[in-house]
Specification:
four-stranded mixed sheet
Length: about 525
């Protein structure tokens, strides 16, 4: 992998290592072959994966908190900065299936036209006939299997959403029309009903549209649209000045804005094996279906396993504090990124499944996927801060990166029971996996009075303040004593602990050596178990 993807700390150091292996390879080779920043490719590809899943599967953090896989994303870059690379690569993944679906629709349309002509003839003869016979039945018009669309008004998308309950994908090389369309039915350029309807489509909820032309009511019980495209910084700044910040539209957009770089030649090309593996993954995601329940379609809801749920719980609490400290506009983005962590986890889980040969996706989502979702959410949070500042939505970030790193290390430690070794940390949050920052952040956490070193074990642990059973000033040994074992602890000074077990003070321990009875002379029930 080239140095292009190794520059940690730079504005565009997109965490490609969090992506499933097949997706990661496609993003890396795609960016290298176009001499583009990895985020320009990663965001449209992630949105494409979510669009392929559509409304067929959702993820539940708990009862009542269920979100779909659909994402909204925009690559923010000026013209001439290869900003369309990700759009092109995403479109390539869907082109074959879209072409095939279009051919099938055209064939069905021709058959329908012929059947319609026959029906009209039969209907005319029936009108002339004096016999009491049932009228001919008109043919059903064909419906097209659609995913990619380019029309950006909800009224035009509504009939397609009825025909395609899995959802649609607005993949546009220029998203200006997406923002302009928000005011299509309002006066004075203000956002109209379309904006509120688009916010509904973000969550895959039912959609109801009353057409003005023929007073027709269109109802889609399951409607969702994924959005991906590019937009220039100045255009985005103008687009969100009309109320889209306050409405929450901007908060729902995942943004990437790589630093400008001149276009340059590269001999790198994407390998055919990489294309084939990714195409197979996308095709498997597109093959996912809803479940049928009482004659209607329902989403398959996947839940977090216990370990993943505990991890997400600690993230929610820490992320809530970060959100509370932000400016209003960034707080809105942070609040949506909490749910995005779940969406990323669902996409990661299903992409891993689609990379293999298992017949159907596992019903529960594990720790690896939720960790990837959390880390991706946090990367996009940092990127949102940077983009918001550049386009003038906020003056400057409220939270300093150093403070965030300590808060997140503390959060991770709490999810692990309040203590961990430095080696554990280097295998945990992405920031520490290179081996960097572990010691420095641990020292900073200790200096802030939020943790301390525990060197009473073979390997030293960092222990959160208030989470340790022992301290340097008042260390105790817990001893569980059975009624028949009082002779082994005679003369030791003990005190009652909060959990009802007795403890021996450190000063007494130094005077007497306490050890378990030898295995060959006492039963398991008669041993004294000592825990430091």
């Amino acid at each position: 992998m080239s140095d292009l993807f190794q520059s940690h700390g730079q504005p565009d150091s997109f965490p490609v290592d969090l992506l499933p292996p097949v997706v990661r390879q496609y993003v890396v080779e795609g960016a290298e072959s176009r001499a583009a920043a990895p985020s320009i490719v990663a965001l449209p590809v992630l949105v494409t994966l979510g669009a392929c899943v559509g409304t067929t599967h959702k993820i539940a953090a708990k009862q009542g908190w269920i979100v779909p896989a659909m994402l909204w994303g925009a690559v923010v870059a000026r013209s001439g900065s290869v900003k369309s690379v990700g759009y092109d690569l995403a479109h390539e993944l869907l082109k074959h299936a879209e072409d095939q679906a279009n051919r099938e629709f055209e064939n069905a349309k021709r058959e329908y036209d012929l059947a319609e002509q026959e029906y009209r003839k039969a209907h005319a003869q029936w009108l002339k006939s004096k016999e009491e016979i049932a009228p001919p039945v008109p043919p059903e018009p064909p419906t097209g299997d659609r995913l990619v669309v380019d029309d950006q008004t909800v009224e035009s998308l509504a009939p397609l959403l009825v025909e395609n309950p899995k959802g649609l994908f607005l993949l546009s090389d220029e998203l200006r029309g997406f923002f302009d369309g928000m005011g299509a039915y309002a006066s004075g350029g203000r956002a109209g009903k379309d904006e509120a309807r688009w916010l509904t489509l973000f969550d895959g909820r039912p959609l109801s549209v009353d057409r003005k032309t023929n007073r027709e009511r269109i109802y889609a019980p399951m409607a969702g649209v994924s959005v991906a495209g590019t937009i220039q910084p100045g255009t985005l700044a103008k687009a969100v000045s009309g109320g889209q910040v306050e409405s929450g539209l901007l908060a729902r957009l995942l943004l990437v804005m790589p630093e400008p770089r001149p276009k340059r030649w590269t001999d790198a090309e994407m390998h055919d094996a990489t294309k084939l593996a990714m195409q197979r993954l996308v095709d498997r995601l597109r093959s996912l279906e809803h479940k049928a329940l009482n004659g209607s379609l329902e989403s398959n809801v996947l839940r977090l396993d216990n370990e993943a749920r505990d991890r997400f719980k600690f993230f929610v609490n820490a992320h809530g504090l970060e959100t509370f400290k932000q400016h209003d506009s960034l707080a809105a983005a942070y609040s949506k990124l909490e749910g995005y962590a779940l969406r990323f986890a669902l996409i990661h889980h299903l992409a891993v499944w689609a990379s293999g040969d298992q017949l159907s996706p596992p019903r529960s989502i594990g720790l690896e996927s939720i960790e990837a979702g959390i880390e991706l959410s946090r990367w996009f949070a940092a990127e949102a801060e940077r983009v918001y500042e550049k386009i003038g939505v906020v003056a400057e970030p409220v939270l300093q990166p150093a403070d965030q790193h300590l808060d997140r290390l503390e959060e991770w430690l709490r999810s692990k029971g309040g203590a961990a070794t430095e080696r554990d940390i280097s295998r945990g949050p992405r920031r520490y996996r290179s081996g960097h920052h572990v010691e420095d952040d641990c020292k900073a956490l200790i200096q802030a009075g939020r943790a301390k070193w525990d060197i009473s074990r073979r390997t030293r642990h960092i222990v959160l303040a208030g989470d340790s059973d022992s301290s340097a000033e008042n260390e105790t040994i817990r001893v569980e004593v059975s009624p028949s074992q009082t002779d082994n602890t005679e003369g030791l000074s003990t005190t009652a602990n909060e959990d009802g077990r007795d403890t021996i003070s450190l000063s007494e321990r130094n005077k007497r050596k306490v050890s378990p009875s030898p295995p060959n002379t006492a039963s398991f029930q008669e041993r004294i178990r000592v825990t430091i």
